[in-house]
Amino acid sequence: MSASKPRIGFIGLGIMGRPIALNLIKAGYALAVYARRSQAAQPLADAGAKVCASPAQLAEQSNIVFTMVSDTPDVEAVVLGEHGITFGAKRGDVVVDMSTISPEATRRMAAGLEARGIDMLDAPVSGGEQGAIDGVLSIMVGGKAEVFARVRPLFECMGKNIVHVGDHGAGQVAKACNQILVAQTMAAAAEALLLAQAAGADPIRVREALLGGFAYSRILEVHGQRMLDNNYEPGFKSKLHLKDVRIALETAIVAGVELPGAVRVAACLDELVARGDGELDSAAIARTIWGRASLD
Ligand code: NAP
Fold first, then answer.
1. Which residue's CA is the closest to the ligand 1 atom numbered 8?
2. CB 1 within 8 A of CB 23
């Protein structure tokens, strides 16, 4: 490992965080990790990461700290909470939040950190677990250009399409846009397969036909197959997709625009989560769409 490489901390070692952190180790970075459950840190410890007892302890030994946790309150807890990153970070350190959270909360956190001399980037991703494993994520970044330039070599270990969208929160706005597209495309795939079956055409053959034309999407390909297989092992959990569409709707209220399609898809995800399927892959939105038509 080169002596000039920054020391990296990583918090949030779930479906996405684990493979991203492993790719940083593979690229030769010294990694410190924190997980609230020791089992979550074990694969990283096995790969050579140092396991820390708290986010503060991790921040003390890192120059750049990544967070990839679930929701806005989780990022606030690991950054600002008791034994949080701010209690160990030094002036000039950078917090890079890769979770999908509220743009407004991101801006507030960035301002609070800046007052302590700590920089922040919001850097949510798209591309799923496989994209994280393969290091080909799309990364949408908000924050100062010079901080983005400093962190870019690390992003290059994780992703292929790395875009500095704008100032603090702009990455999260881009991700909210991403999630309303993904959720509605997923719902559209479920509706197309429903119509195929109800109208007497084999949904398997219909999907096959559509994949060659203008209706092609990665979602029809991957999630359409999951729907046909009735295989909803996550992937991306439905409860997290609901969280993301809600973030988009809250952002739309602040921005003064209406998103009727996102409202409809949020209702489908809400129904799915309310019936206890929040841990299933969000392709299970088909279950609410098909269930309404009594077709399964
Ligand atoms: P996940 O598998 O549920 O992992 C989340 C990780 O964060 C878990 O290890 C969890 O710890 C940890 N965590 C959550 N809250 C925490 C807290 N307050 N303190 C400490 N650790 C905490 O979720 P994921 O799929 O990796 O998603 C992570 C983020 O990426 C989410 O914001 C999600 O919306 C976004 N995202 C996911 C995907 C995807 O395809 N999965 C794609 C793009 C973006 P425990 O294990 O102890 O619960």
1. 14
2. no
Write the CA distances from 272 to 209, 291, 293, integer angstroms.
29, 10, 15
Q: What percent of the chain has pLDDT over 90?
A: 96
Distance 100 CA to ligand 1 centre (A): 9
Atom of ligand 1 nearest to the CA of 78: 19
Task: Tell me the CB-side half-sphere exposure of residue 196, using CA atoms within 13 A.
Answer: 19
Burial (Cβ within 10 Å: 0-12, 13-18, ≥19) of residue 164: buried
135 close to 23: Cβ distance less than 8 angstroms: yes
Summarised one tens digit per residue, pLDDT across range 93-125 is 999 999 999 999 999 999 999 999 999 999 999
By annotation, the residues acting in catalysis are 175
36 lines ligand 1 (CB under 6 A): yes
Residue-range domains of the chain with CATH: 8-167 (3.40.50.720), 174-292 (1.10.1040.10)
User: pLDDT band at 2, cuts 50/70/90?
Assistant: very low
Q: How far is CA 60 from each of CA 25, 55, 77, 141, rounded to the nearest angstrom?
A: 19, 9, 17, 24
